[in-house]
Amino acid sequence: MPASRMRDKSALARFGKEESMAHRICRELIRGEIDNRAEGRVTGTLWLAGREEPVQLRLKGNPWRDLAGCLVRFTNPNPVVERACSLAEQQEGVVGDMTASRKVRILQEDSTGQPLGAAMHQEQHWAAAFYLEWFSEQNGRVVVESADYRVEIEEAPTWSMSPAQEEAQRQANEAAMQSFMERLGDALHLPDTEAEEAQDRPTSQVEAEADAEAARMNLLLDRVMARMEREGIDDGEEYERIYREEREKLRIERGEPAPEPLTPEQEAEQARWIEEMNAAAEEALREYEEKGDEDELPSHPLVDHCQDLGIRMYHEVKASGWVPEGAPDEHPLREAVYGVEFASAKLAGALSGIVRREEWPPDPLFAGDTLVRLKKARTYLRDAIAGLDAADEQRLADFDWRVARRAEVAAILRQVETLIAEVRESLE
Predict the structure, then answer these.
(1) N or C end of the chain: smaller count of CB under 10 Å?
(2) Domain tally for the chain?
(3) How far apart are CA 406 and CA 399, in angstroms?
């Protein structure tokens, strides 16, 4: 699990909604220059298509060693005006990564400029790209990246950077990235660990009993599965026997009284309840069979949203090659994907039945179970965000992808928080 999560201390106003994504000015840039001949400072000028005045850079820090101490000029052979660029004319801030040797994958194109290969398996090759990144007070993260620019180093470096200095500069770049992400985290209003623990505490007797029963059931199932693994058992009938035995052992270990025989009235009530549950299940099955496979039973919109996001993230991560073969399940990007997928399963359990009954908040009979599942979904969504945080720290995947997916997960998380609050309110 990543060591840190982003905290909520400020509002989105200081940063601006549009700044949660990087400003990429690759295509509209006509030409530019950066000057690092004075150590510890990068100045520069960028001319953009559709703008009369150039953008001026005044940044603290140094590029990577290949550009350190140099005056560099670069030209885009095919600039275009894509949109109204909101980049501030004066850019003051800190240097991120700046290099002319960044390795990127380039899609192979045919004679018409169309990518070769199917959408998920386009032919690619590696190329060196010119890459400029900085973090400004005016616009947050700004990126220039292209493998097509013509790049010229105008003269010999006025100073040289040692390997140790380059490592120190990269650490400073990471600190700049972390500072940027903390500001973004502020904007998303994600809770700290203590607040999360407080949110998980039950607020009613029904919720407390449901939490306790869920914890007890998880412990029991863990013991059953561990015993079956030890004894090499995979038979269903044996599972039932071991389940009964472990349930009785757990009751004795906890000093719980043996269940008393039901009274005739309790037996009748239990039989009535079982009959109602069976009738509800049969009705649901009939509805499913009548509608057919092509028209499934309705699900809650939040379930659909979370499932769609999990599927999309899975395919994006798989197609990108960001996770190496043989990587463990604890890989940050897998943790992010699994968190969303597991959350969608818990949300389906919590909400799909509610949709069929068209009842919200749920009846107290179901409210405890609904809360347990919603809180588990919340935990998985927090795990997904923690995985994205770890990806930030390790610079895994594309930055814009991480920011966009974090915003989507956080939006689902906020909706789950609202549902939890509504159920709790109905029980008070």
Answers:
(1) C
(2) 2
(3) 11
